[in-house]
Design goal:
It is built from nine helices and seven strands, in the order βαααββαααβαβαββα. By secondary structure, it is an alpha+beta fold. The protein has a single domain, classed as Gcn5-related N-acetyltransferase (GNAT) (Aminopeptidase), CATH 3.40.630.30. Strands 1-2-3-4-5-7-6 form a seven-stranded mixed sheet.
């Protein structure tokens, strides 16, 4: 197997990061929530995501500096974003709400308010001070090589070296995304919270009607180092 190299994302990687975010949001479906909420095309979303990423607002998943990218033969094949929830005093949800108002515009956000209320039924609160894993993507040509696991370990290693007090690693995902769910189970992640809604309208907006918050300990993950 060709060697897998991992490095921090840079501005020149923005196109691959957009690919990562879009595939992660679809979660194995064709349902792209950002487009559904704001009534925009995928091309329009791509343009907006580029602006957001280049602004590089830390503490949430739409941020260049939060990503690590895996390469094989100098080609990007996978990426994951992470941050420590609330490290600057603001939860990711507040930061993203502010980002949406700025980059999508107040009119689009107001038009999306009813749809966002439907999605609120699946809101899972992230734990302050815990490492958050988000926007997990591995290109289909590179799956089965343990790339997502390597990326998560590298993220945790980076935080552990400078923040040894951090104890937990969390990820929110669609429970119906079987491949991802069982991959995290096999990596030692366990469900600590689950949200389900019987409102079928949510499936017009999100890829699943059930989300789970999975958790692992930093101690367990650093055993792989």
């Amino acid at each position: 197997m060709n060697e897998i190299e991992i490095r921090k994302a840079q501005e020149k990687d923005v196109d691959f990061l957009i690919e990562t975010i879009i595939h992660a949001e679809k979660s194995g479906t064709e349902n792209l929530s950002y487009c559904k909420f704001f009534s925009i095309s995928e091309a329009e979303l791509t343009s907006i995501l580029k602006e957001i990423l280049e602004e590089d607002i830390e503490g949430q998943e739409l941020c260049i500096s939060g990503f690590l990218i895996a390469f094989i033969d100098n080609k990007p094949v996978g990426a994951i974003c992470s941050w420590i929830e609330g490290s600057d005093g603001n939860p990711a949800a507040i930061l993203k709400a502010n980002i949406f108002y700025h980059f999508f515009g107040m009119e689009k956000c107001e038009q999306a308010s009813d749809k966002l209320k439907i999605a609120e039924a699946l809101t899972l609160e992230r734990e302050m001070g815990a490492i958050q894993i988000e926007s997990v993507y591995v290109h289909e040509s590179a799956r089965g090589k343990g790339i997502s696991k390597k990326l998560i370990i590298e993220h945790v290693k980076n935080y552990y070296s400078s923040n040894p007090e951090v104890k937990k690693v969390q990820i929110i995902l669609a429970k119906t995304n079987d491949n991802a769910f069982f991959a995290y189970k096999n990596a030692g992640f366990e469900i600590v919270k689950e949200k389900h809604t019987d409102n079928k309208e949510v499936l017009d907006l999100l890829p699943s009607d059930t989300l789970v918050l999975m958790e692992n300990s930093v101690e367990n993950i650093i055993k792989y180092l």
